[in-house]
Amino acid sequence: MNLTSDSTEKNFTVFGEETEFYGVLKFTDNLEIAGTFEGTIDAVGNLEFAKTAKCDVDSIKAESVVINGSVTGNIFANSSVDMQSGSKIVGDVTTKELRIDDGVDFTGKVTMLDRELNLDIFSYAASDFKNVLMTASDSEE
Protein backbone atom coordinates (compact mmCIF):
# COMPACT_ATOMS: atom_id res chain seq x y z
CA MET A 1 0.00 0.00 0.00
CA ASN A 2 1.36 3.43 -0.94
CA LEU A 3 -0.70 5.75 1.19
CA THR A 4 0.58 8.76 3.11
CA SER A 5 2.93 8.39 6.05
CA ASP A 6 0.15 8.61 8.64
CA SER A 7 -1.40 5.41 7.25
CA THR A 8 0.27 3.33 9.99
CA GLU A 9 -1.67 5.23 12.65
CA LYS A 10 -5.08 4.49 11.16
CA ASN A 11 -7.13 1.35 10.62
CA PHE A 12 -6.70 -0.30 7.24
CA THR A 13 -9.59 -2.03 5.43
CA VAL A 14 -9.50 -4.02 2.19
CA PHE A 15 -12.43 -4.75 -0.11
CA GLY A 16 -11.05 -7.91 -1.73
CA GLU A 17 -11.16 -8.92 -5.39
CA GLU A 18 -14.42 -10.84 -4.89
CA THR A 19 -16.15 -7.86 -3.24
CA GLU A 20 -18.89 -6.01 -5.12
CA PHE A 21 -20.19 -2.83 -3.50
CA TYR A 22 -22.93 -0.53 -4.78
CA GLY A 23 -23.97 2.69 -3.06
CA VAL A 24 -22.49 5.49 -0.99
CA LEU A 25 -19.26 4.70 0.83
CA LYS A 26 -18.02 6.82 3.74
CA PHE A 27 -14.91 6.15 5.82
CA THR A 28 -12.33 7.99 7.93
CA ASP A 29 -9.36 5.61 7.90
CA ASN A 30 -7.51 3.85 5.05
CA LEU A 31 -9.28 1.73 2.44
CA GLU A 32 -8.06 -0.38 -0.46
CA ILE A 33 -10.56 -1.47 -3.11
CA ALA A 34 -9.52 -4.54 -5.10
CA GLY A 35 -12.98 -5.55 -6.34
CA THR A 36 -15.90 -3.80 -8.02
CA PHE A 37 -17.42 -0.57 -6.74
CA GLU A 38 -20.24 1.56 -8.17
CA GLY A 39 -21.65 4.66 -6.52
CA THR A 40 -20.16 7.57 -4.58
CA ILE A 41 -17.19 7.74 -2.24
CA ASP A 42 -17.30 10.54 0.34
CA ALA A 43 -14.40 10.05 2.74
CA VAL A 44 -11.86 11.87 4.85
CA GLY A 45 -9.41 8.95 4.81
CA ASN A 46 -6.89 7.67 2.26
CA LEU A 47 -8.02 5.49 -0.64
CA GLU A 48 -6.18 3.07 -2.90
CA PHE A 49 -7.48 1.17 -5.92
CA ALA A 50 -5.63 -2.11 -6.56
CA LYS A 51 -4.78 -3.34 -10.08
CA THR A 52 -7.86 -5.58 -9.99
CA ALA A 53 -10.24 -2.73 -9.04
CA LYS A 54 -13.02 -1.73 -11.40
CA CYS A 55 -14.80 1.37 -10.14
CA ASP A 56 -17.54 3.42 -11.76
CA VAL A 57 -18.33 6.34 -9.48
CA ASP A 58 -20.27 9.59 -9.58
CA SER A 59 -17.48 11.13 -7.53
CA ILE A 60 -14.67 10.35 -5.16
CA LYS A 61 -13.72 12.60 -2.27
CA ALA A 62 -10.79 11.51 -0.06
CA GLU A 63 -7.63 12.82 1.56
CA SER A 64 -5.37 11.04 -0.93
CA VAL A 65 -6.07 8.62 -3.79
CA VAL A 66 -3.68 6.04 -5.28
CA ILE A 67 -4.90 4.35 -8.49
CA ASN A 68 -3.52 1.10 -9.87
CA GLY A 69 -6.75 -0.20 -11.45
CA SER A 70 -9.64 1.22 -13.47
CA VAL A 71 -11.61 4.23 -12.21
CA THR A 72 -14.34 6.13 -14.03
CA GLY A 73 -15.62 9.26 -12.28
CA ASN A 74 -14.49 12.61 -10.92
CA ILE A 75 -11.88 12.66 -8.15
CA PHE A 76 -11.35 15.30 -5.45
CA ALA A 77 -8.38 14.66 -3.15
CA ASN A 78 -7.38 17.18 -0.49
CA SER A 79 -3.72 16.08 -0.57
CA SER A 80 -2.74 14.05 -3.62
CA VAL A 81 -3.66 11.76 -6.49
CA ASP A 82 -1.15 9.15 -7.64
CA MET A 83 -1.90 7.43 -10.97
CA GLN A 84 0.34 4.39 -11.24
CA SER A 85 1.53 2.58 -14.35
CA GLY A 86 -1.16 0.39 -15.92
CA SER A 87 -4.07 2.31 -14.42
CA LYS A 88 -6.98 3.67 -16.43
CA ILE A 89 -8.76 6.82 -15.27
CA VAL A 90 -11.67 8.58 -16.97
CA GLY A 91 -12.83 11.71 -15.15
CA ASP A 92 -11.77 15.10 -13.88
CA VAL A 93 -9.24 15.39 -11.05
CA THR A 94 -8.97 18.15 -8.44
CA THR A 95 -6.05 17.96 -6.00
CA LYS A 96 -3.00 19.75 -4.55
CA GLU A 97 -0.44 17.22 -5.83
CA LEU A 98 -0.65 14.98 -8.88
CA ARG A 99 1.69 12.19 -9.96
CA ILE A 100 1.15 10.35 -13.26
CA ASP A 101 3.46 7.42 -14.06
CA ASP A 102 4.38 6.33 -17.57
CA GLY A 103 1.84 3.88 -18.94
CA VAL A 104 -1.25 5.54 -17.43
CA ASP A 105 -4.37 5.88 -19.59
CA PHE A 106 -5.95 9.14 -18.35
CA THR A 107 -8.82 11.06 -19.94
CA GLY A 108 -10.06 14.16 -18.13
CA LYS A 109 -9.25 17.62 -16.86
CA VAL A 110 -6.98 18.49 -13.96
CA THR A 111 -7.53 21.32 -11.50
CA MET A 112 -4.67 21.99 -9.11
CA LEU A 113 -5.36 23.41 -5.67
CA ASP A 114 -2.56 25.84 -4.74
CA ARG A 115 -3.75 26.61 -1.29
CA GLU A 116 -6.35 25.81 1.29
CA LEU A 117 -9.66 27.22 0.16
CA ASN A 118 -11.29 29.19 2.94
CA LEU A 119 -14.81 28.04 2.16
CA ASP A 120 -17.62 26.81 4.33
CA ILE A 121 -18.66 23.91 2.10
CA PHE A 122 -21.88 23.47 4.03
CA SER A 123 -23.11 26.91 2.98
CA TYR A 124 -23.34 25.82 -0.68
CA ALA A 125 -25.70 23.45 -2.44
CA ALA A 126 -23.84 20.47 -3.89
CA SER A 127 -24.74 21.59 -7.41
CA ASP A 128 -23.21 25.04 -6.75
CA PHE A 129 -20.01 23.90 -5.01
CA LYS A 130 -18.21 22.94 -8.25
CA ASN A 131 -18.82 26.44 -9.61
CA VAL A 132 -17.45 27.94 -6.39
CA LEU A 133 -14.30 25.80 -6.71
CA MET A 134 -13.90 26.78 -10.36
CA THR A 135 -14.28 30.47 -9.52
CA ALA A 136 -11.78 30.21 -6.68
CA SER A 137 -9.20 28.47 -8.88
CA ASP A 138 -9.74 30.96 -11.72
CA SER A 139 -9.16 33.92 -9.39
CA GLU A 140 -5.75 32.48 -8.44
CA GLU A 141 -4.45 32.61 -12.01
What attributes does this structure have?
mainly beta, single chain, 1 helix
Plain-language structure description:
- By secondary structure, the chain is mostly beta strands.
- It has one domain.
- The protein is 10% helix and 50% strand.
- It has one helix and eleven strands.
- Strands 1, 2, 3, 4, 5, 6, 7, 8, 9, 10 and 11 form an eleven-stranded parallel β-sheet that branches.
Distance between the termini: 35 Å
The count of domains is 1
Helical run tally: 1
The chain-level structural class is mainly beta
Biggest β-sheet strands, sense, barrel: 11 strands, parallel
The total strand number stands at 11
Ranges with pLDDT <50 over ≥5 residues?
Answer: 1-8
Report the order of strands and helices. Answer: EEEEEEEEEEEH
